[in-house]
Amino acid sequence: MSREGVDHALRTLREERDRISASLLDLDGHQGSRLLEGARLTGETHRRWEDAKAGMLALWAVFDAYQRVLDEAAELRERSSRPDAALLIELSALLAGPAVELPDEEVPLRQRTLLGPRERRVTLAEAVGLMTDAYAFVAGEIDAADAAWSALLLPLEEVEECWRETARLAHSLDGTRHPELDRIGRELTALGRLVRTDPLSLVPDGRPDTARLDRVRTALTALGDELAGVARLRDAYAEHLARVTARIEEIEETEQRARDAYARVLTKIESPNLPAPGQGLGAELRDRLTALERLREAGRWVELAGRFAGLDRAADEALERARGELRLSTGLLDRRGELRGRLEAYRAKAARLGLVEDDRLTGLYAEARDLLWTAPCDLRRATAVLAEYQREISACESETGSRR
Predict the structure, then answer these.
(1) 121: part of which helix (H) or strand (E)?
(2) Is this model's pTM higher than 0.85 or not?
(3) Residue 42: left (phi > 0), alpha (psi -120 to 50), or beta?
(4) Among 127, 157, 273, 298, who pairs with 100 as Cys (CB 3.0-4.6 Å)?
């Protein structure tokens, strides 16, 4: 190389060395690197960070060897402002030849012997290539871990804060530990430990896998909604209590009306084929309500809410059952009243048609009236006779119309 070529190469290589040095220092001081160095890593992240640290040490070792060659070349150049041919040859060998001696760990296995690795030298340009590859690997591992933490830590902390708020609410409602909340807490603790010590295990394909965290969030949200409902029940318990008490009173009243109606049916309807109304559902619900009052006095709101919901459902079912039994009994009596009304309506129609003296119709009317006004009433027979009475009136009406 000429003197000018040597001076140009030295300037270029010094600038390149400064950029490399700055990049290595930035990589050492990167936030992700500091986090990895300070964390107690486990699993996949620990393995990859150990590999990255080894790569970083090797990178600095190659850089030191690279820099020693540059320093040696600069020192040689400073010996003379006008270097002779021998010096230029030596400088050329340093700047363009295989002058950088690689550290032992950078020598490939195939180039080693039983007595140790053979000496391997590369050019400055080749050393830069080796450092570039090593830098890309180390930076990639640091970036992967940093990206994993960035994607997972904030959602994790949000869920953890949600758990703490839910735990405070649960404690204010019951003062005891909540089994489901404890289960979610244990799962969240294990997941938090994994995120903080082995985030790369949750990034199997380069994208954060938040499925477990999402499941915990969903379960916690559901539990939080449930506990919020308990809090609303606690704050408006007097209104809820009054509502359920009124419904129990309605059940008791409806049960009594059903029993009274059933008793009337037995005396007024022949073979009603009705089941006897249920007994004592209202009283049973009152006992359950009294038990809830004991839970309220003890401040056990979570347990109370579950039992209150069951009582609420049972009251709805009991009221519907009592109403159904009342409808069955009153339905038969209403049916008798309906048949009575229809009989009188048909008799009035027969009178308009001038059929009052018809023996057949008179006999059917008398039979139907006797059935419907006699206790117990045979509703089946009365219905059949009334239908026959209607058909006879219709037949007579048709016959009269055809004669006209």
Answers:
(1) strand 121-122
(2) no
(3) beta
(4) 127
